[in-house]
Amino acid sequence: MPGVEHLDVVIVGAGLSGIGAAYYLQRSHPQRRYAILEARGASGGTWDLFRYPGIRSDSDLHTFGYEFRPWREERSIADGPAILAYLRETAAEHGIDRQVRYHHRVVSAAWSSQEAHWRLEIERADTGERTALTCTWLFCAGGYYRYDEGFTPQFPGRERFRGTVVHPQAWPEDLDYAGKRVVVIGSGATAVTILPAMAGTAAHVTMLQRTPSYVLPAPSRDALAVRLRRLLGEERAHRAVRRLNIARQRAIWRFCQRHPGTARRLIRWVNAKALPEGYPVDEHFNPPYDPWDQRLCLVPDGDLFRAIRAGKASVVTGRIATFTETGVLLSSGEELPADIIVTATGLNVQAFGGVALSVDGAPVDLAQTIAYKGVMLSGVPNLAYAIGYTNSSWTLKIGLLCEYFCRLLSYLDEHGYDVCRPEPANPQMPTRPFLDFDAGYIQRAIAKLPRQGDRAPWLTSMNYQSDVKLLRRGAVADPQLRLSSSRATVSA
């Protein structure tokens, strides 16, 4: 198209997934022209956006980091700034940072079968200018939640509160909480991170939860990884520790799934040992669901429990009746005084960055599509996406998806194809939700997300070993993957 730039691949998002996708693409297809479009003004995605106290990963960095680049720090449960530095150093080492176009928000993407490409409408977030470009492949690597706002329920009486209300996703740089009474509403990973981080400075921090979550202490420093690095060297140690930690994550998840009662009792025993004697463990650390029905919260070195033992923090389980001028009133009649209220109430899920997709003029209704191998959508040509694991380190899945994407491109090249469209052999195949995960932020949006089928290759797998067989070693050719050149459509 005259006057419109054309690229072979456009990657949307310069975070953990986008940088990983760019690496694999460069390595396997150095001849392809690509760019990363990033709506914000900086790389790093989540790890640049979130600035709340104590921001950290709840997965070890030997698996949460990239397979191709060792994690070199001694702390395996790392804080946000360390992870952000790791991402940006990785991008700089491989020249990926030079391919990022900042303040480029993709508003819409329209596929044309006649032209065999996508046309992207882009808004410059810094100037408001609208531009366009075309690409053969679109790779959506922006995660699954909205970057411009978090989820905050409607709390009665919020306007009456005379203190400060903040959401972790929009943490003010100048928020002074020294000597202040803080109430953190929530019980997920963000809340259990914020509580100990603020407790050292605030007068007191109360975590107010409607229902408890499973919380487990974990060492922030991986002693075995440190020893192996000295014995084997960085590269070999990284491979060994990564394999070991993948196996450990899988074993813990499988144990919780197969023996939920035993897992519940074991977690309770660990909690009781970490908390003060006589603490009401069953009231505040005994969820109504089984372990790993929702993600387990890891607290490095048991910092949450230490803050409770020191009297600097507490946990309250109850329902909010209303905000008051000076705090939060519970349905029980108890009032929690507060100078600052932190609404650690979760995320707003937004698939594909909110990009409006269409194919040959027809809007794509994501809820009517089915996920193909967890990387493409039925009926949507030349589009790939990156969604990681919910039951282990996100990046383990991202690496496999990117490898598969590059293998698919090679297959197309070798056989003279340039268009790829997944189509179920049985259009009436039973389907179920995209993710088998009970977390509130997923359930609020599940009806707007793609579906998954009841058989391969239409499953959204959460099993690393199965995905290794399917995505890394399995055949690319598939009768349900319609491949074509710009001139003639044939079956794979």
Structure description:
This protein is α/β, with parallel strands linked by helices and 492 residues long. It folds into two domains: 5-147 and 348-491, FAD/NAD(P)-binding domain, CATH 3.50.50; 152-345, FAD/NAD(P)-binding domain. It contains 13 helices and 28 strands. Strands 1, 2, 3, 4, 5, 6, 19, 20 and 23 form a nine-stranded mixed sheet that branches. Strands 8-17-9-10-13 form a five-stranded parallel sheet. The protein has a three-stranded antiparallel sheet with strand order 14-15-16, with no helix packed on it. Helix 1 (16-28) runs parallel beside helix 11, helix 5 (189-199) packs across helix 10 and helix 6 (223-232) packs antiparallel against helix 7 (234-258). The longest helix has 25 residues, at 234-258. The relative contact order is 0.15. The mean pLDDT is 93. Its cofactor is FAD. InterPro entries: FAD-binding_MO, FAD/NAD-bd_sf, Flavin_mOase-like.
Q: Which keywords apply here?
A:
single chain, alpha/beta, FAD/NAD(P)-binding domain, 9-stranded mixed sheet, 5-stranded parallel sheet, 13 helices, 29% helix, Flavin_mOase-like, oxidoreductase, monooxygenase, flavoprotein, FAD-binding_MO
- Strand % is 25-35%
- Average pLDDT for all residues: 93
For CATH, the homologous superfamily of the largest domain is named as FAD/NAD(P)-binding domain
Query: What structural class is derived from the secondary structure elements?
Result: alpha/beta
Biggest β-sheet strands, sense, barrel: 9 strands, mixed
Domains, number:
2
Percent helix, as a range, is: 25-40%
Low-confidence stretches: none
CATH topology of the largest domain: FAD/NAD(P)-binding domain
Individual helix count: 13
**CATH architecture assignment name of the largest domain:** 3-Layer(bba) Sandwich
Oligomer: single chain
Output the CATH class name of the largest domain: Alpha Beta
Distance between the termini: 29 Å
Q: What overall form do the CA principal axes indicate? A: globular
Output the radius of gyration: 24 Å
Number of distinct beta strands: 28
Cofactor: FAD
Family: Belongs to the FAD-binding monooxygenase family.
Protein name: NAD(P)/FAD-dependent oxidoreductase
Keywords: FAD, Flavoprotein, Monooxygenase, Oxidoreductase
